[in-house]
Amino acid sequence: xxxxxxxxxxxxxxxxxxxxxxxxxxxxxxxxxxxxxxxxxxxxxxxxxxxxxxxxxxxxxxxxxxxxxxxxxxxxxxxxxxxxxxxxxxxxxxxxxxxxxxxxxxxxxxxxxxxxxxxxxxxxxxxxxxxxxxxxxxxxxxxxxxxxxxxxxxxxxxxxxxxxxxxxxxxxxxxxxxxxxxxxxxxxxxxxxxxxxxxxxxxxxxxxxxxxxxxxxxxxxxxxxxxxxxxxxxxxxxxxxxxxxxxxxxxxxxxxxxxxxxxxxxxxxxxxxxxxxxxxxxxxxxxxxxxxxxxxxxxxxxxxxxxxxxxxxxxxxxxxxxxxxxxxxxxxxxxxxxxxxxxxxxxxxxxxxxxxxxxxxxxxxxxxxxxxxxxxxxxxxxxxxxxxxxxxxxxxxxxxxxxxxxxxxxxxxxxxxxxxxxxxxxxxxxx
Length: 431
Ligand code: SAJ
Hints:
Layout: H1 3-9, E1 14-17, H2 23-32, E2 37-40, H3 44-51, H4 62-70, E3 74-77, E4 88-91, H5 106-115, E5 123-127, H6 135-145, E6 155-159, E7 178-182, H7 185-195, E8 202-205, H8 208-239, H9 243-250, H10 274-283, H11 290-316, E9 325-329, H12 344-354, E10 358-362, E11 368-371, E12 374-377, H13 383-388, E13 391-394, H14 403-409, E14 413-415, E15 428-430
Parallel strand pairs: 1-2, 1-4, 2-3, 4-5, 5-6, 7-8, 9-10, 9-13, 13-14, 14-15
Antiparallel strand pairs: 6-7, 11-12
Ligand SAJ binds near residues 163, 218, 260, 261 and 266.
């Protein structure tokens, strides 16, 4: 029975390399569609947790995972030879930047090399990791073919960017449209047939490069527009115009506008990183992506700008930053999640320490984190801790915080997220 028949019959056994915030939800959707799923993980700890039916990804309810594991539909292993039991494998591994802000494709390459010895004819491999146009066919395909099988005749190969927005209450893996581009039309068709079994909407495109570029466009669009807001923030501060109010007014335009906001910097594993995958590849074509480079400079500068503005606000109260007690409120990279990756709060905390400030922080989602080699733990947020600080610095505006108490008890608030919108008080300064 060929791949298409095995897909349509539900008998296709599916593999997922990398059971993180992308791979585990994907494995769950595959299993909920009735496919047996083998999770291929380098982390024995993650594999053990999955096999114990314990979710470590907030978007995957433990009970849902446990039911699928006990039904024999999901299992995880560090034994990559099990890839040979599958008909299709999705690669969902990290694509970070290295110290030089260049793409680090090592995780994808290792994943491809780990499954290559076990590939068999009629297998479909899809790469989901966000990466530059060309990766699938220039990097992954040669590795997969090094086992002797050829894409287009023995193997199917496609790129389908992950579009997971951690913590999104509306859009999860199943109901977020999935773009799919194959090396050949038959590769695209095979991937569309498979993904259509557990994703509501699949969007075939003509090539892997179009598919790779689609994701980079989505996130570069965000990074550039956030940088624009950050640049306009600096202008409006000089012009004594409240940009937050301007954005709220612009938002009333029911077409042709999409609201972005200034902030203390760009965090997360996507937006600060993805655009640099494109700007790096562009150099190969003698092309400088000036918007991306400029937006990177502006966004990377925001933590420094925050410190300068904070010192201005404290100066107005005749308070030096040195030896002052700063209560940092919210350190996760965005509101209402626990993820610290690339959070601007880390850089801001480092800069505060360099200025000899004394810092404490409160974040209901982040019990502790390391700054300049020292682990700091979240303090309880009480009127006393607020009143005891020389300044409360709001970096991430989680919803369940009593901002009214903050405004009334703090001697000074520096608000980088407009969390105290509408509070017009001498002791509240906004970015
Ligand atoms: N940020 C701003 N101003 C904004 C929006 C975001 O400063 O107007 C900051 C955030 O505080 C955060 C960083 O930028 O530090 C990234 O925020 P994000 O809202 O883009 O959230 P992410 O990083 O979780 O982005 C993900 C992306 N999803 C995928 O890559 C699959 C992105 O494409 C989504 O659009 C985004 O979630 C989303 O919409 O929430």
